[in-house]
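Data deposition worksheet. Section B asks for the primary sequence of the deposited chain exactly as it was used as input, without tags or linkers unless they were present during the calculation. Section C holds the resulting structure in token form. Section D is free text for depositor observations; keep each observation to a single sentence. Incomplete worksheets are returned to the depositor.
Section A, Depositor: J.P.
Section B:
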Amino acid sequence: MIKAALSVLLVLVAMSSTSGKYIPKSGKRIPQTLARGWGDQLIWAQTYEEALYWARSRNKPLMVLFHLEDCPHSQELKKGLSEDNMIQRMLDEDFIVLNLMYETTDKHLSPDGQYVPRIIFVDPTMTVRADIVGRYSNRMYAYEPADIKLLKSNMEKAKKLLKSEL
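Section C:
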């Protein structure tokens, strides 16, 4: 009797822990190594050049996420971003995504310096959206886990600007 109850409990725990994660409309995907834990069900671009090509050809905004594996701020933001189903859905359906652990040669992607974590939006015309910023004046593109609501708002803004300007 106890074994049966434990078996049922184990199954329920396993089901509840997997049911909270975002699953794309097309079904569960094999996690990409490019995701680096930021969204295992998302399709990530491999390079900045590839991401720009996808953004232009699919007419979607690009979200570039700069981070470091050993940065505690990056790890905290990763946890918040990867566990938020609304953000994961928006990234999957409406954005091209790229995460980088190194700086690019494009100086437009570091308009106020090179720091992590940093999120920059680029529209399909390959224009860096310097007007979509976080809440800090000294690190304009920095986000923290407490800024998830602002990040969602900025993602919506990037989508609206795309529709109104193109």
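Section D:
The helical segments are 2-19, 48-58, 72-82, 85-94, 148-165.
The chain is about 40% helix and 10% strand.
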